[in-house]
Write a structure and sequence with these properties.
10 helices; alpha/beta; LysR_subst-bd; two-stranded antiparallel ribbon; transcription regulation; 297 residues; LysR family transcriptional regulator
Amino acid sequence: MADIEPAWELYRSFLAVMREGSLSGAARALGMTQPSLGRHMRELESALGAVLFARSPQGLEPTELARELVPHAQAMASASAALRRTASAGREEVSGTVRLTASEVIGAEVLPSILTEFRERHPGIVIELAPSNVAADLLRRDADIAIRMHQPTQEALIARHVGRVELGMFAHRRYLDAHGQPQTLAELSGHALIGFDTEKPFIRRLRPQGLPYTREQFALRTDSDLAALAAIRAGFGIGIAQVNLMRRDPLLVRLFPAEVSLALETWVVMHEDLRPSLRVRRLFDHLAAALERYARA
């Protein structure tokens, strides 16, 4: 292997090629020309002393080594992003960038008003919001702050419990007027149910005993909580959603409140190394206070 350490920009180009599947697609994603990106790949292969892609009429085929390099290059990308966010503060004043991650529903339905209030108080802070149902790795610095629906266990994290977000079963009044309102849990099997496509362990833990709510019974299956929420609002059928969100629309009717009441323990989390960062602490405290009010509503 050559003694020259490859520059980060070469790995960034490498990740783009792996993600896009072609030099042309990667060049478009990075705003580069295809010849420049191709030169990056040749320089990286030369520096590593190994072939990363096999050329064929069908395009580029990653070698086994290329696939093994991906998680390490992704770690470099996360570290580079964390460095940029740290450097963007520049001074001790409350400015700079904070990256925040939360579930799809929290990110799209709950946080916008909370972040608007924060922006009015701290206009110098730029927020990067990454809604995803895949938990970000705070130890790897994929994000500065995370809103988690389970208690974190890593010792290097600071976590504040903000309450329990209740889930209930809902349908739009339009659906119930057209199809009738079920009077017992057993009658749910005769209705259009909205639910998951992939059953995750936490779903099995939360599901009440006796509730006919399995994948085989769903008329609409989706792993997107936002899509399920939109389907309930559209009158497609009956589904489970956050009670506080559904209360905002009087045409959404809660069904079986005594039998179907699930609780998501909610936490605001950050890495302990970010404690000295004033901008991160300000957003952390603001989120914790606002989400405590949301959970109590």
